[in-house]
Amino acid sequence: MSKFEPSQLPNLAGQVAIVTGGHSGLFVLLPILQNMLTKSSGPGTTTELLRHGATVYIASRSRDKGEAAIKLLKLEQPTADVHLLICDLGDLESVKSAAAEFIQQEHRLHILVNNAGVMCTPYSETKQGFETQFQTNYLSHYLLTRQLLPILMSTAETSPKGMVRIVNVSSDGHAKLAPKEGILFVDKCRAKDVSTWTRYGMSKLANILHTKELARRYGASGVIAVCLHPGTVKTNLSQGPRNSTPLYRLIQPLVELGAPGPERGAWPLLWCAASSTLTVEDNGSYFLPIGKKTPASKSGEDKVLAGRLWDWTEKELANAGV
């Protein structure tokens, strides 16, 4: 399904979506600014979901950036039904509050896009003491998904088969960068003795294992969970490795040679979120761009590891009081 473009998406009127990190990167600001400057079409995920009639909640930790993004969206689409959901992935309490706020506002949720993330940042810890990459990329999205599962499942009960989806953004780096054990089950994932690249790969592997276990546990509910490697895309995600790995500054032009910007870079994610060619038979699958179902790494296909991560995560969240 490599020949895909957003015009192939179905009408999404009546559907409700949440996109974490939906105000930047693959999603809003650069595509819209590009449109304003070049008069071209083909914006990112949030914009395309809105263009096809969906109600979209942008989950962002920054009120200023989120509101600025909504203003830009309204300039292009004055009737866009778009809202801001304050959600700081570095604070589990904020994530839990964001889910509760959404449930107060809406009684349906068709699409949850767990996209926001960081890459190869210097070692740091979150408010609850977890390693930052692991919490931002995986743990907080696990919590957000868990809190929203009841509304996702109730929506699936009254929706066409295959419509309700959870999309986790992973990376092919999970295969190259994660440790040989797959996941290092250390206290709050504070793996200080490995590189930032290893910690990043581990967080992206966790996204895949989360997807596999969601499909196993909740497949009968009608909710589809998929994950994807979006491909190399020119976004501000590269700021992390630029800051933590001086060599990356030299090789970045080669890494990104021929890579799309946020405009086309969002297409693989759009396909997973809303394409009618993705079906319930794809539940739990891992995709390369665009819509190419492929096995994950050996660790990514490890059912025992997926179950162990799920149980470990639940214990860690309980210990954190959420």
Automatic annotation (TrEMBL):
Keywords tagged on the record: NADP, Oxidoreductase
Tagged with keyword Cell membrane: no
Pfam families in alphabetical order: adh_short
Keyword Oxidoreductase: yes
SUPFAM superfamilies, A to Z: NAD(P)-binding Rossmann-fold domains
Coiled-coil region list: none
GO molecular function, one term: oxidoreductase activity
Family of this protein: Belongs to the short-chain dehydrogenases/reductases (SDR) family.
Name the UniProt record assigns to this protein: NAD(P)-binding protein
Organism: Oidiodendron maius (strain Zn)
